[in-house]
Amino acid sequence: MTTAQGVAVADDQNSLKVGGPRGPVALEDFQLREKIFHFDHERIPERVVHARGYGARGYFENYKPLTDLTAADPFSEAGLKTPVFTRFSTVAGNKGSADLARDVRGFAVKFYTRAGNWDLVGNNIPVFFIQDAVKFPDLIHSAKPEPDRAFPQAQTAHDNFWDFMSLMPEATHMAMWIMSDRAIPRSFRFMEGFGVHTFRLVNAKGKSTFVKFHWKPKQGLQSVVWNEALKINGADPDFHRRDLWGAIEAGDESGDYPEWELGLQTFSEEDADRWIKEYGFDVLDATKLIPEELVPVKPVGKMVLNERVDNFFAETEQVAFCTQNVVPGIDFTNDPLLQGRNFSYLDTQTKRLGGPNFTHIPVNAPKCPFHHFQQDGHMAMHNPVGRANYEPNSWGPEHNPKENPETGYQSLPVEESGPKVRVRSETFADHYSQARQFYISQTPEEQTHIADAFTFELSKVQTPAIRKRMVSHLLNVDADLARTVGEQLRLEEMPAPADAAKPTRQDLKPSDALSIIKNGPASFKGRKVGALVTDGVDADLLAGLMKACKAEGAMLELIAPHVGGVTDSAGKHHDADEKIDGGPSVLYDAVALLPSADGAVELKTMPPARDFVADAFAHKKFIAHVKAATPLLGKAGVVPDDLDGGCVELKSASDCDAFVKQCRALRFWDRKA
Ligand code: HDE
Question: Region Disordered: which residues (predicted)?
Fold first, then answer.
């Protein structure tokens, strides 16, 4: 061990004292002062939004050359692998907030291409709250803790947020998404990502095509239910980061890493103009999406996250994404939200990372060669060599970078004309039709979750007029939804529908792509079964369940009364992954109750064991159980009459396969819980 100056340290346990071991500490103790000084400066400002995040390294693998569409390097060759760094995040909470907040998730990918860094800074929801960047500070102020009281943390369930939302009709479509289960994903691995804005792809000939970017998780979509989210936040506030870390760690053994396919919706300016007339949405309006039924999403490559970071701060905290980091072949559109973002990211990073040289930090530096005359500033790591530091100059050729019109970035020469105005486009005026389309695309179960989420959030709102105003917008989305929420809030009277600039279209067809349940996984791969075990657990059954999980690519964890583990019926010892109060069933996708007869009697007396069972049942999880678990089920309020098709009795090891296959449906939604 040395000091930061490289001087070897002889004693790192004691400070330097004058007059013997009980004397005052000497100012001269440079070793102590340096250590404490550095510690005092460990924190940097957290991101003003998306503060809580988790990142990993990986690669993007391109399927086929897309040179017809774009000159962008990652799409230039079949099989080309471009290194990436991806950071997932929540938006509103601070750095230490819990992972299962009801919130949008950030989905930001930095591609280290051979032509420079390209950042696709997206979210897990394809639309946004607002249409113009000028409203972003208002939106975020309203969502963050209220300024006088500094609560609630990482929650939108408060007056300020719903006050703002109910005064901004354009936010209604997004309100539907954040009140859906999209805002409480089971894992980063099981959620989609979207570039949100319309971008441009530009080919080598300068031909531009509009594009929307989509990430689709290879293992299907999955969310938790709200009551689970509330409990997960207590049991494991790091649920999502632990999940990603664990999944990549498990991949090191199995070779199966978290994967997403990148898909493109491509379309022409003529298509875009036509849709304004036909469907009433403008592709420059970030509160709208393009239904996949209208423009299918074409898969073009896949992203694999296969490396955990070596140091969270160095990479995940210091990574700086920016929408204006584009490479030749990718260009912007006039989406006013995107234009505002192009300013914001660089600006905020200069403050957060302490100066203009944050591109020198390894996670932010391009992996391709780079040469420029930017110099000096705080913490300059790449310093120019030689005499030339301006252009044009007559030095060189060494250390003297020159511009290159052939390979250099060319902005698309888009023609713009007309007056300079501070107005909102008429084509952005339909605020409800796609909100309705989203709602009618959900399964009945998902519609119930949306109504319950609105009810929960608006029940935390203390001002009745705000609750009512929000319901007035829902009346423009769907009368049944508005009525259900109104009744669940016990509104004294239903408000009139909010004034609408454009009437809600009733002719937009449901889109299956918008539902999570309709886009679940084909297998139970990557999911987790929690088995509640005690001494005397049936050895054959346990082995059978382990085998069935392994065959499916699922994980099995053992939860026991003591962390020291259990001894099975054949006398074999098994370590426990969790002690019962540290491993509630909300942390698992399905559960197995495998106590011995004596064990069930012991578990019956333990509140966490009763909660384990009662929650699994209420959250409509698949439950495998042995006969001996009947008294425990009963104590948790699940009597024999309640046992439905989602509760599977394991009589022998051969039943385990069928149980794990059944779990592919993820939940037994028909349960009357
Ligand atoms: Fe961001 N956003 N944003 N945003 N955003 C930031 O940049 C901003 C928006 C998104 O993991 C900040 O480096 C404005 C949409 C992600 O490091 C800041 C507007 C989408 C991340 C900022 C938006 C996003 C950020 C804060 C409206 C989805 C986290 C720290 C015009 C397409 C990136 C930082 C990471 C972060 C500004 C709207 C995604 C302040 C002004 C829409 C994933 O610059």
Answer: 387-419
Average pLDDT, the chain: 97
Nearest ligand 1 atom to the CA of 344 is: 44
Domain span at 199? 53-360
pLDDT in tens, 13-65: 999 999 999 999 999 999 999 999 999 999 999 999 999 999 999 999 999 99
Report whether pLDDT(396) > 90: no
Global confidence as pTM: 0.97
Residues 474 and 334 both lie in one domain = no
CATH number of the domain enclosing 511 = 1.20.1370.20
Confidence of residue 288 (pLDDT cuts 50, 70, 90): very high
Contact assessment for residue 527 and residue 544, using Cβ atoms and an 8 Å cutoff? no
Q: Which atom of ligand 1 is nearest to the CA of 338?
A: 31
Q: Is 123 marked active-site?
A: yes
Task: Report DSSP letters for 581-627, one per residue.
Answer: GGS-GGG-SEEEEE--HHHHHHHHT-HHHHHHHHHHHHTT--EEE-G
| Structural domains in the chain (count) | 5
Q: In this structure, is residue 421 part of a structural domain?
A: no
Residues with CB under 6 A from ligand 1: 47-50, 53, 87, 89, 106, 108, 121-123, 128, 133, 136, 196, 286, 319-321, 337, 340-341, 344-345, 348-349
Q: How would DSSP label each residue in 19-71? A: SSTTSPBPTT-HHHHHHHHHHHT---PPPSSS-SEEEEEEEEEESS--TTT--
